[in-house]
Amino acid sequence: MDINLEEIKIREFTSGDKDLVDAFFGQMGGETRALFDRDSGNHKNALKYFSGEAKNKIYFLAEHRGIMVGYIFLWDIDTMVPWLGIAVHDEYKGKRLGRKLMQFLIDYARNKGKGGLLLTTHISNIRGQGLYDRMGFERMGTYLDGEVLYLLRFKN
Fold first, then answer.
1. d(CA 19, CA 95)
2. Which one of 72, 131, 140, 156 has the largest count of C-beta atoms within 10 Å of its C-beta?
């Protein structure tokens, strides 16, 4: 499927987005689920927005023709270096959407005066690690559980 990235709109979650979010997590195949949503952890965290439990977090979705095709978030947004998360709809992988989503979060954090961004990813998430490298993140180390820590420092 060819897509025009200009057609994809990134916006904050709204109260009416719960069905989009559920459908996004529902379409995840085994690999995506294993790397991003083990034990439905990220899905449960996204749903905290709708229950009002999401404190100190901001959630965005990428929408294309009425479908949620990307999910990005920042946690600990009151700190100088918040944590980010990213997931791309299985059918939209390899179409440069991940790069667009990452650039959106980088620009957002810079505009908010942040000093950088942190993220972790599973050691076997080679696709994600390639994206983080291309976006300028530094690999800081690996946790015992197989998660790799990345840091992007903003230059003043």
1. 24
2. 72
